[in-house]
Amino acid sequence: ETPAKATGTDVRGAKVTFDAAKQDDGTYRMSDLTRGARVDTYDAGGRDYGEFLGQMPDGMIPVPNKTAEYPASAGESGAVNAHVNSARVYDFYKSRLGRDGIDGKGGTLTSVVNVTANGRPFANAFWDGEKMVYGGGGDYYSFAAALDVTGHEMTHGVIERSANLIYMNQSGAINEAIADYFGNAMDVEAKGTPMSDPEAGLLAEDLCRTGTPKECALRDLNDGRNAMDDYIGATVGQDSGGVHLNSTIYSGALWDIREQLDPATADKLVYKALTEYMTPLDRFMDGRNAMVAAADAMGLPLEDIQKVTAAFDGHMIHR
Ligand code: ASN
Ligand code: ZN
């Protein structure tokens, strides 16, 4: 197979050109061979997500097509969006943070779109330990259709291959916070949204067919959950100890830092803290210390380090 350009439409019907792989028999597959890591995108065709957990069913190949012009179905499934967004996430990690893909070693970025759950639409996405899995339905487009969500899911993979923050309680909330941070960081960079825009901190705000971004968003990194009094503790028997509920306490501090420092410096700082200082069972206080240690090691000026500590003071106080 050889690298080739292909065309299609995205979930919103816009025409898109993307990188594909031309096969020796002249047909095409949704595989990007042009980057440091291969990018493969599969269409589950509505099969249950359970068939893909930690495995790929026999006979699956990256979305095939006879010609370089993919039909509308490749857009409606979310495949075109997943493929293009995965490549953009790769580019962000490579150019800004010098990381070669999820594992840092050019391992393939694999996505599966168009899954269902128990015969019903699955309006969600997750990292299964090896790949990204996306559904959609109802009022939602495919979850692959938002760069912040693709960036979020792929960042779960980066976290697993670095600090490996355990996905429960405070370490799980930091895991979620960092996934949201980088997902949103790439989204605002791609769109040119200023950090001062109230929509900059929204996650998944583009996924709804109807409804305003604010109504649609799953989370807001400026949601004002800015004290440990807001922490929902170990009594939460669901959501792995409230990882998606408590994350904005930590991500709120990270987002304040990105608002106050040069954004590229903030991105490098969070990445350095994650990959060099955090460990699997870190609690918020450890996560804070990791950020300060990384800022110190980067040689950031004292005024920037004070902004880092002030941001955490603003989110981890007891009122
Ligand atoms: N979309 C969610 C996430 O990536 C799915 C999950 O709960 N793992 O956080
Ligand atoms: Zn997540």
UniProtKB/TrEMBL annotation:
Peptidase M4 domain segment(s): 6-160
Domain Peptidase M4 C-terminal as annotated: residue spans: 163-315
UniProt superkingdom: Bacteria
Entry similarity comment: Belongs to the peptidase M4 family.
Protein name, UniProt field: Metalloprotease
